[in-house]
What we know:
Layout: H1 2-30, E1 31-38, E2 41-48, H2 49-101, H3 104-142
Antiparallel strand pairs: 1-2
Amino acid sequence: xxxxxxxxxxxxxxxxxxxxxxxxxxxxxxxxxxxxxxxxxxxxxxxxxxxxxxxxxxxxxxxxxxxxxxxxxxxxxxxxxxxxxxxxxxxxxxxxxxxxxxxxxxxxxxxxxxxxxxxxxxxxxxxxxxxxxxxxxxxxxxxxxx
Length: 146
């Protein structure tokens, strides 16, 4: 008995679905659907085809105008940000370029000073250990091994 009730219920659902499909097909023949997405809310409505053509073009134009304006604004903001970043990088590059090759006389003086400091450092280190090296060499030269 439970199975027959289920079968009847399924048959009724199929019949209702067929009837709904028939109604939808008739409505599509008489009118067209219009679907609007306004600020994330979707509106659907049936309107006659005769008035749909002008309405759809107006809606599409107004949607495209808003979207185009937002895209244009975003593009302009991005271009400004890119221009600022490019200017910052160019200024940094010019600064580094001026530091490395700006005044060759100053670079030569700086390199000469660094070289003198390194020579002085190495001379002092060699003076500190020269006595030890001489003693070690004398020990190895004078020691006889069989």
